[in-house]
Design goal:
Helix content: 25-40%
CATH topology: Rossmann fold
Strand content: 25-35%
CATH class: Alpha Beta
Structural class: alpha/beta
Number of domains: 1
Largest sheet: 6 strands, mixed
CATH architecture: 3-Layer(aba) Sandwich
Order of helices and strands: EEEHEEEHHHEHEHEEH
Number of strands: 10
Number of helices: 7
Shape: globular
Length: 216
Amino acid sequence: MITIDALRICDGERTLLDGVTMHLPANAVHGIAGEGRSVLLKALYGLVSPDAGRITSGGHPLRRCDVAFLEAEPRFWPGLTVRDHLDLVRRHNPESDPASMLRRFPVPLDTEAAALPEAERKRLALVLLLMSRKRVLLLDEPFRGLDVESAFMLRQLILQLGSDGRTVLAAARLAELDGICDDFYLLGGGVVRGRYEHYEFARAVREATASGIAEK
């Protein structure tokens, strides 16, 4: 269980999250939609320090070594090819074989990773994330920039990850979370506007519309 307890995050005088609390069971896919979703994932990974509140796993601070993070706009070391990046990750995870993942998300191995088109950069980032074999996966805007076929493959993969015992948090537009999450949260105005089970998507859309929470 990952517990987010009264999390408060500010950016100067602007409050991005204010008292956000979530209880996220392990071995499930949790969706997060609405304003502040990306900063919440960055706080979970330790890239943003909360002004107040705690993030714990099983009663202890969530450790970065247990977490893998997919950035909304992946960045890669300049001058290194796709193959170089795969080899670096495999060096730390020797049991990882990217072949099956590359069949799902193909990228040209001998091209400089930083020079790839947007869709291929996202596909490479997904492959590297899965090679890490971390138990908690944070996916920030995972569908952004993907072509239709890759987006479909990713939806199938997210469902599989939840079944395989991973804990997945996907921050995306509400429409993109339909059909892939065990539950999902709607953020707005810095707070949790609602929590919904997977079968309550239509209610979530109604309440998001009524609250004036725009899809971005």
